[in-house]
Amino acid sequence: MRQIGKIGVIGAGAWGTALAEVAARAGREVLLWARESDVVATVNGSRENKLFLPGIPLDKAIAATGDLKALAAMDALLMVTPAQHMRALCLELAPLIAPGTPVILCSKGVEQGSNKLLTQVLAETMPNALPAVLSGPSFAGEVARGYPTAVTLACADETMAEAIATAIGLPTFRPYYSSDLIGAELGGAVKNVLAIACGIVEGKGFGDSARAALATRGFAEMRRLGLAMGARSETLIGLSGLGDLILTCNSPKSRNMSLGMALGQGQSLDDIMKTRNSVSEGVHSATAVCALAARHKIEMPISEAVAAIVTGKANVDFEIKALLARPFKAEIDA
């Protein structure tokens, strides 16, 4: 089995920092790349990411850098940059990385404009990399503090999947591997859109029953699109699909759900975004998810409502009325 001793983490937001901490605790040498010079300084100086993950001491095995060239010597890369910046960073990294290097996509989104999954972006920009996807129900702060977490690790090469799982796995961070990259990736992207919808329900004060119904019907949308795109049903009902949906649709810790709550309470999207230093991927992926649904002739009314709201084409109350006015039909066909 291939040995992975040095791991590069691209993106020092909360999730990237948490994954760097996991890899360090698993005994790896970790290089964390950050665009922000003050993040590099605080990680290397005070052993803390004061901007994105304050209050959590970081392992001494983590070094931070702002130089992408320093990642050339890494045995594997965890890509944790926001989905909409993935292509640009992959293009910069491509000439630096040895062929066959595992590149694990840890961001959850669909590229706007091209409407491509991040595995497709990776294939176009770093064709010599070995792609993998890490996704599942996981809040950065909980993972960084060592709370028990389980995720899906998808890679077409099972031997490499086992090597990556061994490199980053801990008793409290359990990667379950799969060969279904599409299912693992799509679940994470769609659940962000649905979490905004569930947040709106919470913000409007509609109650737990309404949120449960919305999440369930949202999962039906995720499953329809996933199967149409070649995902496996067992992946979609697993950690990276249903598991992640349960988490993000039921906790204000979710950036997407909390954004939806603010929308439901009447705040404008512009005002919400001004107060945040982290990315709510569902805002950027909603239109792309709906474009994929249209391409595959899949009906996704909840996702379409979120896309209309975040693009300013309709307001929250209008979309709620439209969803509630949909005709009654059999659940299996709905």
Describe the structure.
The chain has 2 domains: 174 residues, Rossmann fold (3-Layer(aba) Sandwich); 152 residues, N-(1-d-carboxylethyl)-l-norvaline Dehydrogenase, domain 2 (Orthogonal Bundle), CATH 1.10.1040.10. Helix content is 49%, strand content 12%. It has 15 helices and 8 strands. It has an 8-stranded mixed sheet, with helices on both faces. Strand 2, helix 2 and strand 3 form a beta-alpha-beta unit. The longest helix is centred in the middle third of the chain and has 23 residues. The termini are far apart. The mean pLDDT is 96.
Indicate the topology:
Layout: E1 6-10, H1 14-25, E2 29-33, H2 37-46, E3 62-65, E4 76-79, H3 86-93, E5 102-105, H4 118-125, E6 130-135, H5 140-144, E7 149-154, H6 158-168, E8 173-178, H7 181-203, H8 208-228, H9 233-236, H10 239-248, H11 255-264, H12 269-274, H13 281-295, H14 301-310, H15 316-324
Helix pairs in contact: 3-4, 7-8, 7-10, 7-11, 7-13, 7-14, 13-14, 14-15
